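Example 9 (inverse folding). The structure is encoded as follows.
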């Protein structure tokens, strides 16, 4: 019987941090209700702050090697990931990451390549990168992964739907870009045991959620959004945030605690008093 690893979340507490971004620059509509857009200036500041404070970037090979026990990494290590394959990744994020020498993983909804966002009315005009653009990204240090077929929420899926968003999505990305993806990220960060098993059986090496750590096929990530001040961004790297975030993926009370902590840091920053210590 196929068994999907269900690791205790506390090893993730000491693992390399995995940062999750979405869009860059500014929205076409001028509206960004979910704060998905991070400006180029703030993105550069985020990256510079990480490197200046001793954080070291890792690629997916090193990240997987750490979990396997084959690779030793500095205590302050991070893997940078980006969801949705928005056109701004090509125009802004990839060149900035390349200038810093930071590798990354881009998760692509492969059935939407060259199209537009269809899963949100608020972002419906936003463009997805084309096949030609995606094919060029690995030369910049950006690995391609799969983000489902069309950004469908992956819970309570039947067998045919699950295959479409795992096996077929991987084949489509390979067909149009030549890349056979080994990493997967759940749209909206949501998953269940059937979904995790389906991703594993589809042949992926690892998959990522958000805060809901469930082993190799639902690794936790830290969401970085356009509403984060630099103080809030640094706070998200702290052990305090990691503990609350990992616990928050399993209990609704803790999820609210995480949100309250981040909001308190933002309010303190606005007031000019927020100085949480970053380790």
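The amino acid assigned to each position is listed next.
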């Amino acid at each position: 019987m196929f068994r999907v690893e269900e690791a205790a979340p506390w090893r993730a507490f000491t693992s390399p941090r995995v940062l999750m971004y979405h869009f860059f620059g500014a929205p076409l509509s001028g509206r960004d209700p979910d704060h998905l857009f991070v400006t180029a200036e703030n993105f550069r500041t985020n990256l510079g702050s990480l490197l200046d404070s001793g954080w070291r970037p890792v690629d997916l090979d090193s990240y997987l090697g750490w979990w396997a026990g084959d690779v030793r990494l500095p205590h302050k290590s991070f893997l940078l990931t980006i969801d949705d394959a928005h056109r701004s990744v090509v125009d802004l994020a990839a060149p900035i990451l390349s200038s810093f020498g930071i590798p990354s993983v881009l998760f692509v909804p492969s059935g939407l390549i060259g199209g537009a966002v269809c899963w949100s009315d608020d972002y419906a005009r936003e463009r997805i990168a084309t096949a030609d653009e995606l094919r060029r990204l690995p030369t910049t240090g950006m690995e391609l992964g799969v983000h489902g077929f069309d950004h469908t929420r992956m819970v309570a899926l039947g067998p045919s739907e699950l295959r479409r968003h795992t096996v077929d999505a991987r084949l489509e990305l390979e067909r149009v870009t030549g890349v056979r993806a080994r990493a997967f990220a759940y749209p909206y960060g949501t998953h269940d045991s059937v979904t995790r098993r389906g991703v594993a059986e589809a042949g992926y090496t690892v998959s990522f959620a958000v805060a809901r750590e469930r082993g190799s096929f639902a690794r936790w990530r830290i969401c970085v959004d356009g509403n984060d001040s630099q103080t809030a961004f640094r706070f998200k790297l702290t052990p305090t945030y990691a503990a609350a975030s990992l616990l928050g993926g399993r209990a609704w009370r803790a999820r609210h605690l995480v949100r309250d902590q981040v909001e308190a840091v933002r309010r303190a920053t606005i007031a000019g008093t927020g100085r949480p210590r970053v380790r």
